[in-house]
Amino acid sequence: MTGAHDYSVPLLGDLHYDCPPIDVFHSDFRRLHAADGMFAKYQSEFESFSSMWGKDGRSAAVVNASGLCRLEDSAFALQLGDLVEGDCESPSLHRRMFDEAFALMKRTYGESLPFVTLAGNHDVRRGADRLGEYDSYRGISAAWHSKELDQEIKGPTFAFRQGPDLWVVADFNRPDPALVERLLVESGPSRHTFFCTHGAVLTNGNRNPRRWFFLGCPQYDASGRRGGGNWFSEERPAVDDARRRIRRLLAGRNAIALTGHSHHLELRDWFGDGGRITEFVMSSVTKTVKGGDLPDAPVVIGDHPKDFGRCRVPPNAATNDLVEALYAEYEPGMRRYYTADAAGHARLRISDESVVAEFFSGGAISPCATFELR
Ligand SMILES: [Fe+2]
Predict the structure, then answer these.
(1) How remote is the CA of residue 84 from the centroid of ligand 1, in Å?
(2) Superfamily of structural domain 7-372
């Protein structure tokens, strides 16, 4: 039976939209960074990610299949950041990358379906100083979402309502904890609360530097300088306070977090702070930065709460008291942890009774796995 407030949402993880050959978007990067070695450092990533696109690109097939699986009751389509590869070193090429990616989304889902994206680290990324195309992205995001959602949106952190549900989109690069708190506190009750940000909410799960999860250690400070990303940042106590305050607010609303960045498919179900946060990490990238193929169908790396913070840890990860203290905040409350290598698209089905994520491997049009988020 279909309820009055049931709807679905086509869902994509990171895309890193680009176009082969690499000189289409990275010619200025090549010119500006031939001498400093940065072009050599990133060339294989540009080759790999641009090859996901074009006529026979596997990511092009993933996006196409997501459009084919759009249901009649779709409310909007959602992509979880790193929509584009970035690193153009040219405002006009950066703008063109977004224009092409937005046009692809409109061809995929139809002109009338709103398309929502969020700020990934690549969306604001450019060469040597890594300050990012942040101001450019702010303008692009605000104009795009104001039009798509038909409400005034001023920057990359915002909220909107879909029926009885609250959707909060939060910038992961330069998080604004005060604004996120205000959006959560002032929005009043909701049936479901969805919190969408690029880096994971329940840590990055691999004991690696804090800059890669939401409010671990911001990518950029308030003035736009690149953040420290280490365990000993001067700002860490303040950032930790903000991380815990927002975690408590999310848990109090039994929120569902939708995140990307890791290029892994994950489900984390955490009970703590008097409530629950269920995090679904979506993966749509079909290649590794070095040019290898990621599998379409999930290859399970861990499927037990004790695997959280353990089975994805690289051999050179830091081990110290601060890492252990951070993970001790999350490990006891982790009731479900699933992590897999996979590349595909997903569809959320949302009703009074449940929130379910169906995962489709690669360009498949029938789901191969179902995750019950509520
Ligand atoms: Fe990414």
Answers:
(1) 9
(2) Metallo-dependent phosphatases (3.60.21.10)
